[in-house]
Amino acid sequence: MLQVTIELIPGGFEPMRRVIGTMHISNMSNLVDLCDYAVSATEGANPAAGIPASITESVVLGHDRRQRVWAVIQRACEEIMKADWVEL
Question: How far apart are CA 88 and CA 79, in angstroms?
């Protein structure tokens, strides 16, 4: 499983660091060349954008795992952006 954590560091001031989103990417295909992945993501509330804290799940199908890790993260991001988010 991959875990992606997004942190906000206001003005680069480390003591104010806080997690604003996480994503988990889990292989469902026994490490074959073309893999399917389960993706779950959470996002903290963003009052400036009017977005409540929320969660979603999606899948990445048929991903060629012989690529850089950033390729599966990109695909996972694309899928969660299309998914329905549920307010926490």
Answer: 20
Task: Please state, in angstroms and rounded to a whole number, the distance separating the CA atoms of residues 50 and 11.
Answer: 22
**1 band by pLDDT with thresholds 50, 70 and 90:** very high
Domain range enclosing 6: 2-87
Q: Which tens digits make up the pLDDT trace of 39-60?
A: 999 999 999 899 999 999 999 9
> Would you say 53 and 45 are in contact if contact means Cβ atoms under 8 Å apart?
yes
How many domains does one find in the chain?
1
Q: What are phi and psi for residue 83, nearest 5 degrees?
A: -80, 165
In this prediction the pTM is 0.91
Tokens of 40: 């779950």
Q: Measuring CA to CA, how many Å separate 66 from each of 42, 52, 80? A: 27, 36, 22
